[in-house]
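Bug report (template v2)

What were you trying to do?
Predict the complex of my protein with 6-phosphogluconic acid.

What happened?
Run completed; filing so the output is reviewed.

Input:
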Amino acid sequence: MRPEIIAFEDRDALMRAAAARMVSELEEAIDATGAACAALSGGSTPEPAYRALAAMPLHWPKITFALVDERFVPPTHEASNQRLVQRTLAPAFASGAQLKPMYAAAPTVEEAADVAEAAYAPLHIDVALVGMGGDGHTASWFPGAARLDETLDLSNQRTVMAVRAAQAAGAPERLTLTRAALSRARCVLLLVTGTDKRARLEAALGSDWAPVAALFDPGMPRPEVLWSA
Ligand code: 6PG
């Protein structure tokens, strides 16, 4: 069954809706458990949604922000997803929200993944926001990357894995949640903009070449696809 793509009249409406869905999931988690965790992606699309989220009246000290994936660069680097999250959600952090970095300074990206694994394994992700690249990647699950099958294997016991993908924008060495880790999220939001990307997503669904399609497999929380032109 093809997933429903929820279309919004414009980008502003889309970003406000994405923020509202994150607020709803975070508030539900706080009501249920007293705490909440959102895992966020980088890239150019989600920034307005993060800014809209940061302006909402939430119990920020009860909220932890984690990363869906990260470039293997320090948080001072312009390509850092942590830097993007810290910048766009600055009001939330100023009000007490916590950050769980995925990046760690280490000699290799594999050693950094081991550090992130220890920090991320205990996390319970209430809502994850993911995007999609033009090549059909999501998170840092890149087509043709080494160990992609292992990263997507739902029986994988790891939460975070190292990625080496020459085509990865920002940095060819990445850290990423595994699909097994993302399968444990309570809610997954897939945020896509533009007619080209919508066509790529439609083509990717049901394909065996696009890692984004793996979000829709059985055993995964059904992603909510939010789109505007
Ligand atoms: C990253 C992101 C990545 C992103 C897609 C879409 O670190 O680059 O986590 O998975 O979501 O590449 O990026 P855009 O939003 O820039 O199209």
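What did the reviewer find?
The chain has one domain: 5-181+210-228. The chain has a mean pLDDT of 97.
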